[in-house]
């Protein structure tokens, strides 16, 4: 890989003399070091398609191994894109040695600076426990960017095209799970069946469940993973959760720290709870394993039932809500109808759900 650095980054790397070098444009990058929230980040931007690879929270010792961190970040970010492992390995092996040089021209530097700005705007999404920012890199690479002469491109799409052309084969393929997620209600059948790449984190799964059920992500959530009927792990979304002791002394971690394939399909029982007030509990079961899933985003393949509105008051409140909507002469009918619409209460629509999954795939 040929990484063309700003003077600021070369100084950080303590590199004074840089060789003249040429590399195939797909394996050539521009890079800069910036400071965000008093922490150092390095943003790499591909010269061919402006795909972004980013690192955050680097210390002095990390700059000494920037070569390996960059290659690891390429691998992890491409894996997050569901690119085949053999394609990733070939990409890295094709130009494994990292060579540093000076920035090429003003146009390349301006484009790199724009990508740095796009990355910086996502500071609230940074993964604080990891230097490699694969999720934010993936999302930043989905932004439309100007490419001159009034042309706009999506760097991720251009990277996919470039990889397919270079390796002369489809690039997507990963293990995936078909999951049946059932909202546990006594009187109503509400469930979704969705295919999810197995390397996705439980935080990714949370976002997917929100989309396929039409929840609005207003409230906290957690996961419980079971070995038979004994909970072995509680995955949480918020720092405050650690202040509350679990009655079973179940270990607690953040839900972004574990991937689905760390526990599935071996663990047969997983529970997801959303909104601890209304307490919407979902059971999750693996119904099928795909060895080579050919998409780079989840897909909902079946489902049944409308999701209750947010803040309806649990299943009892939902039952009362349904009773009013079933009686057009009820004095509260119009108010309840309007309130339901404001809460985006609607019938399950498979096509609409999949449009939402595709539209939001870069945020997962």
UniProtKB/TrEMBL annotation:
Plasmid pRiA4b Orf3-like domain segment(s): 176-355
Occurrences of domain DUF6933 (ranges): 3-157
SUPFAM superfamilies linked to this entry: MM3350-like
Gene3D superfamilies per UniProt: MM3350-like
InterPro entries per the UniProt record, alphabetical: DUF6933, MM3350-like_sf, Plasmid_pRiA4b_Orf3-like
Organism in which the protein naturally occurs: Anaerobacillus isosaccharinicus
Protein name: Plasmid pRiA4b ORF-3 family protein
Ranges in a coiled coil: none
Pfam families assigned to the protein according to its UniProt record, in alphabetical order: DUF6933 (PF22016), PRiA4_ORF3 (PF07929)
């Amino acid at each position: 890989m040929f990484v063309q650095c700003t003077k600021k980054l070369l100084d950080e790397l303590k590199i004074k003399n840089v060789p003249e070098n040429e590399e195939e444009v797909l394996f050539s990058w521009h890079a800069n070091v910036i400071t965000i929230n008093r922490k150092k980040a390095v943003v790499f931007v591909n010269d061919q398609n402006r795909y972004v690879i980013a690192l955050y929270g680097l210390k002095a010792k990390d700059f000494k191994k920037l070569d390996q961190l960059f290659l690891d970040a390429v691998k992890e970010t491409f894996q997050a894109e569901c690119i085949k492992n053999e394609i990733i390995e070939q990409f890295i092996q094709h130009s494994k040695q990292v060579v540093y040089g000076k920035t090429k021209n003003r146009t390349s530097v301006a484009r790199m600076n724009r990508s740095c700005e796009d990355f910086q705007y996502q500071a609230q999404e940074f993964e604080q426990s990891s230097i490699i920012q694969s999720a934010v890199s993936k999302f930043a690479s989905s932004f439309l960017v100007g490419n001159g002469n009034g042309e706009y491109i999506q760097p991720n799409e251009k990277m996919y095209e470039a990889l397919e052309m270079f390796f002369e084969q489809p690039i997507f393929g990963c293990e995936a799970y078909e999951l049946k997620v059932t909202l546990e209600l006594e009187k109503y059948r509400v469930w979704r069946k969705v295919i999810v790449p197995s390397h996705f984190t439980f935080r990714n799964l949370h976002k997917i469940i929100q989309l396929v059920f039409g929840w609005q992500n207003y409230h906290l959530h957690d996961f419980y993973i079971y070995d038979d009927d004994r909970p072995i792990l509680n995955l949480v979304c918020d720092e405050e959760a650690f202040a509350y002791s679990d009655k079973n002394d179940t270990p607690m971690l953040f839900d972004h720290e574990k991937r689905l394939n760390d526990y599935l399909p071996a663990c047969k029982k997983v529970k997801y709870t959303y909104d601890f007030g209304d307490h919407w509990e979902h059971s999750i079961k693996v119904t099928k394993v795909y060895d080579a899933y050919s998409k780079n985003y989840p897909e909902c393949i079946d489902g049944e039932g409308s999701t209750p509105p947010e803040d309806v008051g649990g299943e009892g409140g939902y039952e009362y809500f349904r009773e009013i909507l079933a009686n057009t002469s009820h004095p509260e009918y119009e108010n309840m109808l309007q309130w339901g619409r404001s809460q985006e209460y609607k019938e399950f629509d498979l096509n609409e759900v999949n449009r939402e999954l595709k539209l939001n795939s870069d945020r997962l």
